Amino acid sequence: MSDKTTDMQRHEVDATPHKKQPSESIDFDDYAGSYDALMHESVGAYTSDVAYFAQYKVDFVKQRRARPVKKILEYGCGTGRNIPMLRDAFEEAEVIGTDISPASLDIARQHNPGIRFEVETPDLKLDGFDLVFVANVFHHIPPPERGGAMKVLSSRMAPDAEICIFEHNPFNPVTRRIVSTCPFDADAVLLRPSELRRLYDRSGIELVDQSYCLFVPPRFSGLLFLERHLTWLPLGGQYVVIGTPRA
Question: Which residues pair with 133 in a beta bridge?
């Protein structure tokens, strides 16, 4: 076990967060047309600008990626809300989005002409990505299927690639409240950072970093500089775990 992993475990809360029993899997085709409205309704108390979350995550990744990026995969891209930010942040890169919801991808294509979108299927063959970006997807994947999904992502990474997975922080009570009242999170089973680290390890991905994030609401943006000093504190609204293929 690495010193980095041991230090992260030291800061991770020991108490088991509230665990919601999973319901029947959500069909995101049913929510494709109303996704943005439902998102706004769910996080309205936090911010009226739902694009804030997408921009925050892309900026976070951009600031930490030192190597050139020529090819990006957004796994679970939904209606393509993050795609414009990824294109702007990595202007030289080819961006490809995948999702299990064909209806969501239809909307993504309308809003992002010229971008390649693919429906996730067991026989979808993709590889050579310098950056794999995953935003709040794994809590929708049934726990027994998460290992297989991670191995798929590992197989798509170039040798010096990075994978950045953002997830809801189950230790944050506000986050748990938002998830519990959001219709398209009815099947959500939140996961700890330690679970993502284990999934990385079992899929041949070496841990690079783990950070808690989204502490400061947009209306207090003047305090955003504090976040870089709080990444160890398990109270952020979300967290990100970053990895690279094991040599």
Answer: 74, 164
